Fold these 2 entries.
Entry 1:
Amino acid sequence: MWKGATVIFGKSGTGKSFLTRLLLSGVIRKEAAVNLMFDMHSEYGWEAMKEGKQVSTVKGLRQLFPGQVMMYTLDPESTKRRGVRDAQELYLSYDQIEIEDLKLVASELGLSEAAMDNANILYNEYGKSWIVRLLNMTNEDIKMFCEAKQGHQGSISSLQRKLMRFDTLKYIRSTCPHNYIDQLIQDLAAGKNVIIEFGSQSNMLSYMLATNMITRRIHASYVKKADHFLQTKNPLDKPRQLVITIEEAHRFLDSSVVHQTIFGTIAREMRKYFVTLLVVDQRPSGIDNEVMSQIGTRVTCLLNDEKDIEAIFTGVSGGANLKSVLAKLDSKQQALILGHAVPMPVVVRTRPYDAQFYREIGCTDWEEMPNEEVYAAAKVAKADLGF
Ligand SMILES: Nc1ncnc2c1ncn2[C@@H]1O[C@H](COP(=O)(O)OP(=O)(O)OP(=O)(O)O)[C@@H](O)[C@H]1O
Ligand SMILES: [Mg+2]
């Protein structure tokens, strides 16, 4: 039974990240799936700031579930500085960047179509080593290449200049003898939840590039595993259900890129390969309509922008009435839930993410507890994953 992706929408400061932490706690506690979280602002794994009259911090998921959550980091110095001693370093290399990854960040990098065409020519010629080769080319080399291969000299030079920005990303290496992504895949297969911290590497180019590269490979491995399972039908071969969480999701699911990138593929193919998305975003109107129509459950905090509100209710019956419900939500810690996880749209107050929650999430009979919100959170996760 297909249930589709889950989304958490709301304008800045409405409590999306706090709610996401609560939901993931439920999924981890229930072992309903393994999670892979692309933690753009380093706020899910370890100590996050809590806004308020006094500045305080809240615990991250690794602190709540030390045995079940692992942290990887793309910026080891920053992660260490924050007091996390056992995060796994993660490096990516130029030879792991494919044309598809570039397409996703083409507008961040300011790459024209001509530059992308020439990237293809270089890739066809040099294969995986094309970026390293390009970065090392002199003007003369480029000229000779263009004469022989019908590339466009101006476009290749401009591509070279723009790709130099990758040099500023701390986690990119020319080559990497160790395959960190394979290691991450093994951890997920062993049932570990993985949080990838970006530290200072959280600009949009950096976030989108790493997130796409890693997800593409994980997805490929899941497709293989799922096909194998279909053949053998052996329950031992069944891949673990995986939930991938991304922030700023509209950047990955925008109409102009959604047909070319792995996140569009995952959103469209639904749960076929045991991978689903948990999408956290401030701008639902930026997400492709087709993807919106396939979302399983929408959890929506307060939104002000008319276009965003419109987008949430596309294709939802009773949308007009629900709009007024949405408009009356508190500015924090309240959400409207629509979709597969609930029999009818409901408004919930998100429970406080606090010391009491830490205690209760660790206690074994938490499902019996009279706290509707935790229960609702677990139900959203459960229903969406088809458990
Ligand atoms: N469940 C909760 N328990 C305790 N505090 C909360 C909760 N939800 C929200 N808050 C308060 O609201 C503040 C903002 O929440 P949060 O960081 O989750 O917003 P956000 O929607 O993710 O914002 P942004 O889009 O800017 O990332 C928190 O710092 C915290 O003070
Ligand atoms: Mg947030």
Entry 2:
Amino acid sequence: MKHINLDLPEVQVRELRLGTITGYQGNAADLVEGSSCGMKDTKRSFQQCLGCSTSQAACMVTLIRDAAVISHGPVGCSTCLHEFAFTYRVNAPLRGVENPTARHIISTNLDENDTVYGGAQKLKEAIKTAYDRAQPNAIFILTTCAAGIIGDDVEAISEEAEKQYGIPVVAIFCEGFRSRVWTSGFDSSYHGIARKIVGQPKERRKDVINVINFWGTDVFDRWFEPLGAKPNFITPYSTVDSLRHSSESAATVVVCKSLGSYLSAALESEYGVPAVKTPPPYGIAQTEKWYLELADILDKRAEAEAFLAEEKAKWLPLVDELRFKLKGKKAYVTAGAAHGHALLSILGELGLESVGASIFHHDQKDDSGAEDFCSLDAAVTEYGDVDNYQVCNKQEFELVNQLNRVDPDILLARHGGMTLWGAKFGIPSLLIGDEHFSMGFEGLYKYGTEILNAIENDEFVKNFSQHAVNPYTKWWLEQKPNAFHEAPKKKKDKKAKAQQTAV
Ligand code: SF4
């Protein structure tokens, strides 16, 4: 089924498009199998707060060098944009950006009056201010819950402004209340980019490969060199012009399917740019498969095989040494879906036992329509099943409950704030935000070294746990981690229903 329709201003949320679920407790293999038949999501009778799609959309458009971004809503909803302005500045050296340009971020600051009389006028003024002050090459408008509830016609306003100012003015529909899966916000921002920024290709360039990523260190220059190509990063540190020409690239790769699967599918189906379907290069098996699939698209298999052989000869003996030192250690993972699966692959490759995982969502389909898209399936097939696998959209009380039961030697996390829970239990915890750090054979060695360092230097967390206050009670820690999951409602059979009606 085709999920991409660039004629529509909005993209469907993941629950509807990809059958994404946010609650599951069991093992990974059963989840993979159940997903192939389509599983229903599990609701919770109690839950803690969630992430917001606006934040994920902001994460992608705030990092475009020559664009301005407007948050159309109360000022509080715009705080995440400032957080990404900080990200833009501090990560610039990782990508060789010497003079990061100032970010141009505006909030329409909707208040109570506006929720009664509408916020259209404030939005028009904000667009004018953004244009006059920043002279941007594009303006992105992020919608928020308040704007969605009062029903401002953001699409019509952006169309009108586009004609007035002669630059793309892109409405991105990412109100937090639309979805329990906050990664829907990535899709919203990419939908806007694919509709309004990406242009029709005038040529097909063999020397450029799109890389849909966050803001990690550039490892792709070196990898693409044997293929005679350069990376075109989307979107951090891109320009409106480089995004426009992304339709001319030879191929698209994603570093995280949770992040980039929608845009890579849109670039393929709407602009003819082939997307690499193999999950990203984490672990030996996936790295080889991924690189060869990319090389085949560029007709460079021989060059790719030579590069892989060189890399393996250099790094795999070192990985073997690490395996020996890490043997028998138990690890627990908490991360977003695709990156969490990547970490499971890395653990399998390094010979650690994955004793459990708290993963933020699970997609049951892929926008490309590919059957073998699932990186969890790839990890389970290659490295075995994972017990204590939970899908929990950052419900920290469920993570804490399970962590307490499985008592791993190390906790691996991808998001800030999560390693705290490992430390409270005296578990060495490792947070690496650079998503490129553990890629390829070199990444496997570097990440394994960090794991070993964290396990061997556990004095701080052991000491910390003696003094830490855990807000969760003994009662909660003794409950099952999914105690607040509601069982799916059973359909009453017709006979029982008829008897009940007769009574
Ligand atoms: S959930 Fe709604 S109100 Fe909260 S930050 Fe997101 S858009 Fe704003």
